Every structure is written in structure tokens, then in C-alpha cells.
Amino acid sequence: MNGEYVMPPDAGPAWRAAAEYGFDMSLVEDALQLTPEQRLEQHQRALDLILEVKEAGERHAAK
Amino acid sequence: MPQNDKALLSRLKEQKVEFVIIGGVCGVLHGASLVTLDLDICCRFSRENLRRLEAAVKDLRPRHRLTTNKLPLELTDELCVRLKNIYLNTDLGVLDCLGEVAGIGDYEQVLQRSVPHVMSYGEFRMLNLDALIAAKAAVGRQKDLDAIRLLQAIKEKREQQKDLF
Fold first, then answer.
1. Three-state SS for B40?
2. Contacts with A31 from chain B: Cβ below 8 Å
3. What number of other Cβ atoms are within 10 A of residue A61's Cβ?
4. Do B31 and A39 touch (CB under 8 A)?
């Protein structure tokens, strides 16, 4: 948290390129420790949050 | 509008729809840290399979989301022959059903380049990583090119650590 991403020593060129492009590769590292089903559940939680914020914004705009 | 991919997948499975998960959700299943707002599948566009698809969503108020009047999904034998893709809004979210995938081909070719994965609510097939990268390259929008960077990194990591999926 609040620090620079520490590139793993075994990071290959594609991994480095993605990190340099701006992806938070720590999130990918975490995701790769999960099963695909767990990844989908995690995605669902993020999606629910995004849709909730979007709906709140739409409600606010309609007032 | 909610988006419940698990519920949609479960329904497709229950009705024995022949399909392969493609698109953003496929990327998520492979480990990409992206958020996608729809569920994309490639399915066999046979009359029988489309009827199974219709049964899977029939009580979810399925509408053709790209039509002007959001027409309800009401398949006929004639439509089953004519349709190449079906883009739906349902009460469980967006479900886009493609008859073929750019960069890969028709359902049979997509199936050949897919991998199975067992989840607690059934076994599903998704595009393998190379095929997903090829499909995204064929579409070539900025968000697809961005996703490719991530997928290439995941591919590289998997090649380093063979036990990863």
C-alpha cells in the first residue's frame, strides 16, 4: 500500500511492459493465486461496486 | 441494471446450452485484473441450441439490446436460421451471444481453441489464452490492445510457473 510496486526478480519482458504501461501488476499477482471461480467472484464484487456508484450518480443527476 | 455473470452462466448450464466463454469475462477467468460490464459467449447457432438459450433466459425479460425498440427475444425457426449474433439485455444483465469470433472463426473453431474448467456450478469452456489474445488482436480497439498487454504478461508468468492457471 502507498508504495511503489516492487517488480519480482523473475519478471519477464511482458510482465515489465504491462507494469510500465500502468497496470497494477500486484492485482494480477493476487488474481493468479486464485482459482478462476474465485477470480469471477472477485470481479463480481468489483462490478457490483461500480454499478452501485454509477446508479448513485444517475440518481443524483436526476434530482 | 445488475450484471450477474454467475447466475447467467448457471442458467445456460442448466439448459445445456453449448457455448464457450469469450471476451472480458474470459480474461478475468484467466487472471486479468479488468472489469467488464457484460458476459460474452460464442455458441452454436443451431435451432436446438438457440431454443435452449431462449429457455435459459425466458423469464428474465430478454430484449434485443441493439434494436431501436428493444424488441423481446422471440425466436422462430426462421429467425434461428437467420441470426448470426444475439445481443441481449436481461434482468440478470447483458448477455452477448456470438456465432463466430473474429480472429478465431465459427463455434467449432472456438470450441477447438477452448479449455474446460470446473466451477462449483458446473463445467464451463473458455477460450484458451492464446486464442483470447488472437481474438482481442483481431478486434483491435484500444481496450483490447490494453487487455493484450495484460494477457501477454499472464501468459509469460504461466510459462514460468507451470502450476499456474
1. strand
2. 31-33
3. 7
4. yes
**Cβ–Cβ contact A14 with B under 8 A:** yes
Q: Do the chains contact at A18 and B153, CB–CB below 8 Å?
A: yes
* Cell digits of residue B151: 494477457
**Residue B163 or B63, more confident:** B63
Cα B153 vs. chain centroid, distance in angstroms? 22
Give the pLDDT band (50/70/90) at residue B35: very high
> How many angstroms separate the CA of residue A3 from the nearest CA in chain B?
19
In chain A, pLDDT over 90 holds for what percent of residues? 67
CA angle B123, A34, A48 (to 5 degrees): 85
Report the distance separating Cα B3 and Cα A30, nearest Å.
23
Are B42 and B31 contacting, i.e. CB atoms less than 8 angstroms apart? no
For residue A55 the three cell numbers come to: 446508479
Evaluate whether ipTM surpasses 0.90: yes
Which segments of A1-63 does DSSP mark as H helices, in order?
A: 13-21, 25-32, 36-62
Q: Which pLDDT does position A2 carry in this prediction?
A: 57
Task: Report yes or no: B125 and B103 within 8 Å, Cβ to Cβ.
Answer: no
What global pTM score does this model have?
0.94
Alpha carbons A46 and B117: distance in angstroms, whole number:
22
Beta-carbon separation of B153 and A37 below 8 A: no
